[in-house]
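Researcher: Here's a chain I'd like modeled. Treat it as a single chain, no partners, no ligands.
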Amino acid sequence: MALYRLVAVIKNPSDEDFLVVRQAPPPPLPEEEYRSFVDSDLWDLPSAPLNPLGGDRRSETVVEGAYSLLDDLDLEKFDVDSALDEVLSLSYLESPLEGRWSVWKFVKEPEFGPGPPVNVLFILGIVKSKEGILKESCQWLSKESALMLLQEVKASATRVGPFVFMGIVPGVAKATNVSATCTLHYQEYPPGITLVPMKSRTREPFHTTNLIVVVADDAINEQKDSSFVTCGNSLLVDPGCSSRFHPDLADLVAKLPRKLVVFVTHHHYDHVDGLSVIQKCNPDAVLLAHENTSRHIGRGEWSLCRTLISGGEKIQIGDHRFEVIFAPGHTDGHLALLHVSTNSLIVGDHCVGQGSAVLDVRAGGNLKDYFQTTYRFLDLSPHVLIPMHGRINLWPKRMLCGYLKHRRDRELSILNAIENGSKTLFDIISKSYADVDIKFWLPASSNVRIHVDHLAYQEKLPKDFSIQKFQASCGSHFLCRWSWTYLKSRGIVTVIGVIGAASFAIAFAVKEKFSG
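Model: Modeled as a single isolated chain. C-alpha cells:
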C-alpha cells in the first residue's frame, strides 16, 4: 500500500512567485572528523505526511478538485487538516489565503523499494500579499530562478529540491524527450536524468535496479569535440532488468535515438542482464565499461563495439555532459558518472537507497579503495546521489560520511570479536552481526572478509590470529554452519525433526503390525 505526502504550492497572484522552505538536514554525526562535510542549503516546497484517518472520521477541509482524484485518492479519508497545519507552520505566513486550496497535481512515485512508494499530492493556495514571512527559512522564488538553480549548478551552491521541479518548473522548462519515449513508470530529477526502476535479480531488501535514461534535446550527427570519448543522442546506464521485463526494455530501446551510448558501472548481473536485448534492438549502440568490468561481460551479452574507460573521460549526450569517475571498492572495475550541469553523481552500487552496500570480495572489492572512493565523492560536493537501487539521496555528504562511520564502526566490532577469540568467519559474523537478521549474514560474509583483509593491511590483527585458518573457514564450513543456524532460527529444524520422528514411528508401527 502506498504512502502519501501533501505538498503546498503557495503563490502570490501579482508575479507568480512561489514560496519555498529551507529543508532540515539529517542530524549531524557526532564525530569531529565528519563535521567539515556539510551539504549546501536545499530549498523546496513545504510538505508534510498525509496520513489516513481512522474509523469513520472524515476530513473537514475542502480542497477544490478533490473529486478528480477519486480513482487514486479519496481525500475525505485522509487527515488533510493536520498535514496543512504542519505545512503552514513551516511557511510562517501572516497573509491569509484567497479562497480555498485546490488540487494542483498528483504524482505517483515509481516502486523504488524497499518500502512502499510515496505518492505526492500538490495543492495550490494563493496568498493576498507577499508580506509577512516571519522566518529566514522561507523565501519567494520565481520559476525562472528555480530553473536556473536546477540546470546550472555549482558545487556547494544553493540547491532546489524535487518538489519544485515536479510541481512548478515543468511549466517553463524545455519538455523532456523521455516523456515521449518511455511508457514505463519513471521519475525525472535532476533535470535530464530519468530513473526507471525495473525488476531485477538483485539482492534483498531491493527488488529493482534503476535504469538511467538520458535523451538529448538536440541531436548530434557526428562527434565534433575530440575531448569526448564518445558522443550520442541517448544514454542508458546499467540495463539490469530480469528476463521477464526484457520486452519492456526492448520497447524503450526501439524508441530511443539510434546513436545510443550504454554505460555500465560494473559487471554484476542485476546491472547487465539487459545488454543482449539492447544489442539486438540497436546494433549501432556503443558500450562503455572499465577493463575489469568488460572481461566479465561475454560476447553473448555484448558482441558489438566496446570502448574501455578508466576514469576521467568525458561523454556528450546532446547538450548533456558527463564525466567518468573511477570508483573502485564495490568491485575493482566500478565506475561512477557525474552529470556536469546539475552536479549530480550516479554512484552505481557504491551507495544504495537504504542501508549499506555489499562489497564483492570475489570481484576485487576492498575497503581501502572503498574509503578512497568515498572521499573522492565528498571532494566532488555533489548535489544529489543517484544509486542504482532505491531512491535518490538529497544529502550526499551526510550519506557518504554515514557510510564511512558505518564501515569504521563495523570494522571495530569485527576486531573486537577477533580479540575476544573468534577465529572463523561464522564466529566473527555471529558476534559482530548479532543485531542483524540471520538471512543477511550470507551477503554480509563478503564484507566481513574484506574488513579482515583491511585489518591485516593495517597490521591491526592479533598475532595469534591465523589468516590462513580464517580463509579456510570461508567456504563450505561457513555455509554449513550458517544454513543450520538459519534453519533453527526459522523453526524449520524442529519441523523436520517432528516429521522425521513421526515417519519413523509410522514405519515402526507398520513393521510391527505385519511382523505380528
